Amino acid sequence: MSTTTPLITADLVAVDLAATDRTDVTRRLIDLLAAAGRVTDADGFAADVAAREAQMATGMPGGVGLPHARSEHVVVPSLAVGKLAQGVDWGAPDGPARLVFLIAAPASGDADHLQILAALARRLVHESFRTSLLEAPDAATVAQIVTREVVPS
User: Counting C-beta atoms within 10 Å of the first and last residue's C-beta, which end of the chain has fewer, N or C?
Assistant: First the structure.
């Protein structure tokens, strides 16, 4: 992990996100990454994420979507989070996702994104973690919870 750029900041969190489908959700999260200067080509990264999703749906039990991709369009390992007002089908067996975590990793990076994915997955199996995110009042709180629970210190 880069010691200078945090994995997640409040400007990478969308709360009360209204979206129609997983492509729409993913695109809105990519736009946050692009606005923050973490993705150089939003369309290019969207294509990389879509290709990864086409291999296998990344829905997890508990109402979670975990899209992720390594891409030459990603500048620094990043995590964007969307809290959806209405769940969106992400291919999970137990229904739609209300929390979506988009992991963006540079193509040249090592296994950073897999470590992030594993740490996030370990926390997401705990209902208390998901609930704390769903109940968080604002983007800053979501970023703080994820940083505390997921980012290796």
Answer: C
